[in-house]
Amino acid sequence: LALHPNNEIVASGQVAGLAKKEGKPHIRIWNVTSLQTLKVVGLGSFQRGICCVAFSVEDGGAHVVGVDDGNDHNLSVWEWENKKKVAEAKGGNEPVLAVDFHPSDSKRLVTCGKSHIAFWKLNGEKKIEKKMGVFEKHAKPKYVLCFAFGQNGEVISGDSNGNIFIWANEGNQISQEITAVHEGPIFSIESSADGMFLSGGGKDRKVFLWDSNYNKSEKQLEIPEESGTVRSAIWGPNVAEERSVLVGTTKNCILQGTFEEDNKQFHYLTKGHSEETWGLCVHPSKPLFVTCGYDKMLCLWNSEDKSLVWAKQLEDQLQSVCIHPNGNLLAVATQNNKFQVLDADTGEEFYSCEVGSEQHDCIKYSPDGCYLAVGSHDNFIYLFTVSEDGKQYKKHGRLSGHSSYITHLDWSKDSQHLQSNSGDYEILYWQAKDCKQVSSGYSMRDTEWDTWSCVLGFPVRGIWPEGADGTDINTCIRSHSAQYLVNGDDSGALNIFTYPCTKLKSTPNVGRGHSSHVTAVGFLATDSHVVSTGGKDNTVMQWKLES
What we know:
Blueprint: E1 2-3, E2 9-14, E3 26-31, E4 37-41, E5 50-55, E6 63-68, E7 75-79, E8 84-89, E9 96-102, E10 105-113, E11 116-122, E12 128-132, E13 144-149, E14 155-159, E15 164-167, E16 174-178, E17 186-191, E18 197-201, E19 206-210, E20 216-222, E21 230-239, E22 242-249, E23 253-258, E24 267-271, E25 277-282, E26 288-293, E27 297-302, E28 307-313, E29 318-323, E30 329-334, E31 338-343, E32 349-354, E33 360-365, E34 371-376, E35 381-387, E36 392-399, E37 406-411, E38 417-422, E39 427-431, E40 436-438, E41 473-478, E42 484-489, E43 493-498, E44 509-512, E45 518-523, E46 529-534, E47 540-544
Antiparallel strand pairs: 1-2, 2-3, 3-4, 5-6, 6-7, 7-8, 9-10, 10-11, 11-12, 13-14, 14-15, 15-16, 17-18, 18-19, 19-20, 21-22, 22-23, 23-24, 25-26, 26-27, 27-28, 29-30, 30-31, 31-32, 33-34, 34-35, 35-36, 37-38, 38-39, 39-40, 41-42, 42-43, 43-44, 45-46, 46-47
């Protein structure tokens, strides 16, 4: 990711995807406010994906450079506005981690990565000359992880040994070394126009401040252990006339702090999930939704200002979550045999129960709030009666009949029946009161369902595309108005249909954003937006429905 000198345009390096039109690796130029794509550069010119990208500075950002993640790690420079390739060269066999233009000369570039730092110069003949950095007597690191440019054009690099090297302007040799700066690798170096710079370490979670003569200030910042370790540290906006620092972490948090003596505490601008995210539910009346995942984090989000209201780390990896019809309680199911009930306003836990022998894949309150159904990986659905406005739970019974794990379940509007799907593609129906299976599916044909999240059933038979197997669609949800149906699939796409969708192999409107399988989808209370969660991309996305 790279920011243009005008601070209004961003370049992102895209990997190969599944989209027919723009599925090949490319550099995408887009507006940071509107998120509209301005240019697609290099489509068809890259092998695997863009591992690093940067804009030129001296010429006003007229050029962009990208490094291919293919075997040769080709480096190519483009006039991005007309999509014209200016020059290209092989980067070498080793991985490249960073690239940037020299701030005072757009014909000079620097790259770094495994066991190397390299200095490049465009010679005006569509070729780029390369000089490798020479370490000589200095300890050669396994990785040069980051670099920045000093006030006089020199290059300041940070490496996996925790050392900083200064490389003379227009040279490829070390002019100064500062050893053992951080405990562990240095993942971030960021300079400023006045010559001061920051260094951010991984293992020690610290950010140091340096002056233009490479003297380390006594001022330093340390991010909380719960937020992970430092991956990026940059200068932020002033806070009470003090320059602030923004830090991005390994646990997908962004924090802000200052070096001011009385204010060395970081505060969170945002927290994200750091492992697969599977659980999602929306508030019945407010612009709020809840997510959870394998990082053990349970998060309440405000959809209007896209902010995190609160986050709580629980003891176990989390699989699914639901909200009580009164909107005041959350029930979250874990990857072992436990579920917990928490206050939706504060995240305070007040009930926990172990039931069954395996993880619980889905969980849902009945519309009247008197039952809680827990669908388990042990092939059973466990029913609990709920009283005292959701604060008392008693095991009511066990629904037995599936021969595989429970994947999805829904309640009828009258809270008397359930429908469920399983891993072997069964659709079964149940009576809640006596915990018995309804043997005749035909007798349930006129049942009104409070929600529709089952991926199998007559109203959703058209969502399955040509050639799909039973695992390709992970999640679906009907809008509250019963006008629309959205599903999420293994290709990372959201597909929206009119409801019911009974015509086989119906054609959806497709939204793409996730780089991994979509694990859960939900309509917000007004049906104006959809929220989705991704698996390995650890991402929560909010989509606006437009007619």
